[in-house]
Every structure is written in structure tokens, then in C-alpha cells.
Design brief:
- This protein is an alpha+beta fold.
- It has one domain: VSR Endonuclease (Endonuclease, Chain A, 3-Layer(aba) Sandwich).
- It is 47% helix and 16% strand.
- The protein has a four-stranded mixed sheet with strand order 1-2-3-4, sandwiched between helices.
- A hairpin with a 2-residue loop joins strand 1 and strand 2.
- Helix 6 packs across helix 7.
- The radius of gyration is 15 Å and the shape is globular.
């Protein structure tokens, strides 16, 4: 598999990625603080990276892992995200998606999920947030409960 980290990128695409890095959401800023500088498991993450036709929120090239932080606009029409994820998976990437609110309210659980996926070397079970914001879903509640149990001695 070729490393897409250094493929040529159009000026337009590069400019859009730079603008996204400059205008981070609160959730992206919060997660980036913990991912940058090899702070999470000594993994090298990059932020707002162009990968062919897409710009991904966070990518760890050595583990072929993409982490996406989604706002409410993703709940309205998940079709685009599904197609995007299929294309990225076809290139060998694993994709994790979290809601903005999940990152802001449960950062330790989000970080633990990322570590668990990296350590397990298996594809994550959920690649798209559930419709309706995800916070009210049973899957979200189960994931938060599991993350809380891992942290409790």
C-alpha cells in the first residue's frame, strides 16, 4: 500500500485544509490537544489532512487510522459520509467517528476507544454516528458505560 501522506495536493485542496486547521471546532481543538506531539500512545497524528478527494479530521498514517469528529450536519444526511468511508476503507484506512458532544463530554472515553482500536488491529464496529445526534442512542450509552467501566478500578 502506498503512503498517501506525501502525494501531490492541489493548491485549492491544500488551502482548504489549512483553513480547516485554522478554524477548528471546540471538539477538534480538545481532541487535537491530546493527539498532537505523539501524546496518545506515541502515535503520530496529523490534523485536517487531504487524502485524494477528501480532507480527514485526524489521521495516523502508520496505523492507517482516521478519526472523524462530526457535528449535527452529519445526522441529516449520512449518505455522503458512508460513501466517503467506503472509499477510504478501499484504500486501507480504518475510520472512527465521534460526535462533537461526545468528544467534549467524554474525552477519556473517546481516547480509550482510539487506543482500543489501535491495539486490537481490527476495524471499528461503528463508522458512522447514529441518526439523531447519537447522544440519545442506546449504542452511545453502551459505549460510554463501557468506557466508564474501563476507567473505574
Amino acid at each position: 500500500m502506498t503512503d498517501t501522506a506525501h502525494r501531490p495536493v492541489s493548491k485549492l485542496h491544500r488551502g482548504r485544509a489549512k483553513a480547516l486547521r485554522r478554524d477548528m471546532t471546540n471538539a477538534e481543538r480538545c481532541l487535537w490537544f491530546m493527539l498532537r506531539g505523539h501524546r496518545l500512545g506515541r502515535l503520530s497524528f496529523r490534523h485536517q489532512v487531504p487524502i485524494s478527494p477528501f480532507i480527514v479530521d485526524f489521521v495516523c498514517q502508520q496505523r492507517r487510522l482516521i478519526v472523524e469528529i462530526d457535528g449535527g450536519q452529519h445526522a441529516a444526511d449520512p449518505t455522503h459520509d458512508r460513501q466517503r468511508d467506503e472509499w477510504l476503507r478501499s484504500k486501507g484506512y480504518r475510520i472512527l467517528r465521534f460526535w462533537n458532544t461526545e468528544v467534549l463530554r467524554n474525552r477519556p472515553g473517546v481516547l480509550q476507544t482510539i487506543i482500543d482500536v489501535v491495539d486490537s488491529k481490527v476495524p471499528p464496529s461503528l463508522s458512522l454516528p447514529l441518526k439523531g445526534g447519537g447522544d440519545q442512542s442506546e449504542a452511545h450509552a453502551r459505549r460510554n458505560t463501557a468506557a466508564s467501566e474501563r476507567r473505574t478500578p
